[in-house]
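F.,

This is the one I mentioned.
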């Protein structure tokens, strides 16, 4: 096996999607799914911890990393669900999954809708939803979504003069990230343009869709998941996680990661690995 992963591309819903493969074909599959505005190579350290015993791959979600952008902004949970299923079918499942944040929400929806493709799930801070709690579906909701989406048409990306400036922005946004890892995160998150660098992700991923699955509907999908699930929460999370989510699953447990914020797999990787590794071993 090579120390560096190899990049592959597949098509899903007419989009060209990128994923990285650390080799070891024939071993149980682990799929790594990043969060919103992130990228697959942010998993490199976690992949290195599993690559000797598992076939590890990491997907760039649509509109992220090296995957194509969806013209028109189709970035809903169901859209991403079909992409996850497609890559598992391509590589050969069922898959163990480690997923973070929005990627966790996608994974839980996918596993509830296509349970035969999933062997076990380790979801880090992935029980929240970006949809508002207080707006009922109707004209007001569609107008709110539409106005926000249309506002993106007038936006221009920030151009950073060099990767060092972009890295400073990463540190400002996530001051608890390990400083020895932020250059790697930045390198894979940015692309060169005239005058410097911009982020690879499509800003329109923030819009989702007018008919997105709403947060009160998510437990219906969680209850349909057949494989074991471990839910990992940062003790110092600042997102609207459902810390009581375990009750909605057929077979789930909850682990809290101490002295960590939302990016627990970067801030406390050893604690995260200590929770996930024996969980996967029990269910491989």
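My design for it:
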């Amino acid at each position: 096996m090579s120390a560096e992963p190899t990049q592959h591309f597949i098509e899903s819903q007419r989009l060209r999607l990128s994923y990285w493969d650390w080799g070891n074909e024939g071993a149980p599959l682990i799929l790594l799914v990043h969060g919103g505005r992130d990228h697959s190579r942010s998993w490199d350290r976690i992949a290195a911890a599993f690559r000797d015993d598992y076939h590890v791959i990491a997907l760039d979600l649509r509109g992220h990393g090296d995957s194509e952008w969806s013209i028109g902004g189709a970035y809903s949970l169901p859209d991403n669900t079909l992409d996850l299923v497609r890559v598992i079918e391509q590589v050969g499942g069922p898959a163990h999954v480690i997923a973070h944040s929005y990627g966790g929400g996608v994974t839980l929806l996918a596993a509830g809708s296509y349970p035969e493709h999933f062997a076990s799930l380790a979801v880090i801070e992935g029980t929240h939803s970006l949809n508002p709690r207080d707006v009922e579906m109707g004209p007001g909701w569609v107008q709110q979504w539409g106005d926000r989406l249309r506002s993106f048409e007038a936006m221009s990306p920030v151009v950073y003069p060099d990767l060092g400036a972009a890295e400073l922005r990463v540190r400002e946004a996530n001051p608890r990230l390990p400083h020895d890892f932020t250059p790697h995160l930045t390198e894979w998150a940015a692309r060169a343009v005239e005058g410097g660098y911009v982020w690879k992700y499509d800003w329109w991923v923030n819009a989702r869709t007018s008919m997105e699955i709403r947060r009160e509907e998510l437990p219906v999908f969680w209850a349909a998941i057949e494989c074991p699930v471990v839910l990992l929460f940062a003790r110092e999370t600042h997102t609207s996680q459902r810390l009581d989510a375990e009750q909605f699953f057929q077979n789930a447990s909850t682990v809290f990661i101490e002295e960590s914020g939302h990016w627990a797999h970067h801030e406390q990787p050893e604690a995260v690995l200590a929770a996930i590794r024996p969980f996967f071993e029990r269910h491989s």
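The first helix runs from residue 44 to 50.

Talk soon.
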